[in-house]
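[agent] plan:
  1. take the single chain provided in the ticket
  2. run structure prediction with default settings
  3. attach structure tokens to the ticket
  4. add a short note for the reviewer (M.T.)
[agent] executing step 1
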Amino acid sequence: MAGRLMAVAVAGESMTPALRPGDWLLVRRGTRVAEGDVVVARHPGRAEQLIVKRATRRTDGGWWLESDNQGASGRQDSWDFDAVPENLIVGRVVARYWPLSRLAIFIPGRAGRRADH
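[agent] step 2 finished; step 3 output follows
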């Protein structure tokens, strides 16, 4: 499935201000992840649940994924469940396409910097 795109909706506030509830993202599955990338992963305790987080560092156990908004209600990330194994990383966010007023291309490996349009 490498190289395929999928659409994912943001549901919570754990990634504000970069991502807001209702934002729709394009995710490139199976692509290489770098520190600073926003990624989609399967929750380590609930494989059916997808999470959107920032990859902050690589560890022996996988990727350390963090929320941008640590104060968000219900937020869960590697501070709660430790590093996420590589096989649970679905892919890297490449763009926010909805709403159109927040259209953005996410630049890989650039510590979360994005090219807004």
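[agent] step 4 note for reviewer: The mean pLDDT is 90.
[agent] ticket updated
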